[in-house]
Amino acid sequence: MSFTSLNFLLFITLFSAGFMALARTRVFTPFLLVASYLFYGYWDYRFCGLLAFSTLVDFYCGLKIADATDRHTKKMFLFVSLGINLGILFFFKYYNFFIDSAEVALASLGVEIGQRTLSIILPIGISFYTFQNLSYGIDLYSGELKQPERSLMRYATFVAFFPQLVAGPIVRARDLLPQIQAGPREIPFQERFAGLEKVVWGYFLKLGLADNAAAVVDARFHQPEFYNALQHVLGLVCFSLQIYGDFAGYSLIAIGLAQIFGYTMCQNFARPYFATGMRDFWRRWHISLSTWFRDYVYVPMGGNRTRWLRTRNIVITMLISGLWHGANWTFVLWGVLHGALMVAEDALRWLGARSPVRLSGLPLAVGKLALVVGVFAIVTLTWLPFRADNLQTVWTILGIIGNGDFSLPRGMQQASSLIRVAILGLIVLAVDAAIERGTGRRYAGTNVVARSMACSLLIVTLLLFGSFENHAFIYFQF
Asked: How far does the chain reach from its first CA to its final CA, in angstroms?
């Protein structure tokens, strides 16, 4: 079920009652596991079977990897885990994509093979829990995780933990499993209140910023030929704000809910639109995924031992990252673009370090602002293939922008949504800017009354300007 649905409100109310009654008992872990499967099965109960099968495979393989006395056996069970998990992911997410691509390629050569695609429902959250399972086996094999989890119930709870099950963060076993083993801890009121603040801010990002921006973005991508260059530029800026509000909002709600119930999860966003470079952007955006690719793809391929290896590995990693996001050539293009931009950034840094010419006299703050604005503009443009349904839409919108018609049309459509996005976007960027300057620590030290008033102000603003049309979270499709 979605965090923004009334059903979730009922679910979390009942879960909270169960938590208060059972948190100090031995039956709490089974209760948490059942609650997590109920949460996941609300979309389609059949998905629970796939989640359980994936969990069983990795639990069994993890025990075999940990208990094996020779490297050959360890490697064999690691490959079993990798093969089954990636095979399931490929079938449900990529089978039709590769079949369609093969049919088109063969048709261009005059070979007709007929329709070979299948009617496949993509299980929600499969990319997230698959990567979480994979990291468990890989960490056991590499020795990063010293001991396997020998309780199937606790391991299943780790995989299915409902706050982050559907759209992350992708939590490592070494971080979450010990907390599940220990059970809910006693945490002070201040920490629980901080979790509640994250939840409120997450809903503000989602229902306020993201869902208002969705009205503007959806119209432009549905019928791109009806809009001029200015309107498409505004649409791309709105999508930058939408996807940030949508995904960072989900992550904050998940992290905040976990914190309220005594669990700690990793940060997933760190004000990405204040990045001063593409590498910096990926240190701030979807941190749990970018670090997953760094640790399990980029570094094993050789990392940055040499400039050539670094270039190759960046491109391959970002290409895989693009495919992880979706089975479409638009995501491949998006991943390649980000890989190329990081390679170009590395080249510019390398040339700049060796150039005898140095820019001087430019204030540091002005230079940083220019970099932030430049990176935001580049990232916003690269969101175009990410959002587009197909490559034809990408070329259409680029062609319209290229025509250069930046006139302000009469009766701007979605004007009220644009105004709300502008107001809420400025609030979000102002808060992020304040945190970037370090005021977040000072805010955390203020009294609860002042912080409660700030939360109340956010809720009132959300009620005045928020959109409550129940848009699905974007990352549910991944």
From this structure: 16
Q: What percent of the chain has pLDDT over 70?
A: 93
Whole-number Å distance between alpha carbons of 195 and 262 = 9
Burial of 93 (C-beta count, 10 Å sphere; 0-12/13-18/19+):
buried
Q: For residue 119, give both structure tokens.
A: 């009617």
Say if residues 193 and 259 touch (Cβ distance below 8 Å).
no
The one-character DSSP state at 428 is H
Q: How far apart are CA 447 and CA 217, in angstroms?
A: 39
14: how many CB neighbours lie within 10 A of its CB?
A: 12
Q: Which of 307, 287, 309, 288 is nearest to 298 (CA)?
A: 309
Per-residue DSSP letter, 477? G
- How many CB atoms are closer than 10 A to CB 49? 11
| Cα separation values, 362 from 38, 277, 278, 310, 443, Å | 58, 18, 22, 31, 32
pLDDT of residue 340: 94
Give the CA diameter of the chain: 74
Residue 161, burial from CB neighbour count under 10 angstroms (0-12, 13-18, 19+):
buried
Looking at residue 476, what is its pLDDT?
75
pLDDT in tens, 391-431: 999 999 999 998 887 777 665 556 788 889 999 999 999 99
The residue to which tokens 């990529």 are assigned: 94
- Please give the residue that has the higher pLDDT: either 282 or 115: 282
Q: How far apart are CA 36 and CA 90, in angstroms?
A: 25
Kindly list the catalytic residues: 325
What are the extents of the domains in the chain? Answer: 6-184, 190-353+360-477
pTM of the prediction?
0.90
Output the pLDDT for position 358. Answer: 54
Distance set, CA 121 to CA 2, 83, 96, 159 (Å): 18, 21, 11, 21
Burial level of 295, CB count in 10 A (0-12/13-18/19+)?
middle
3-state secondary structure of 166: coil
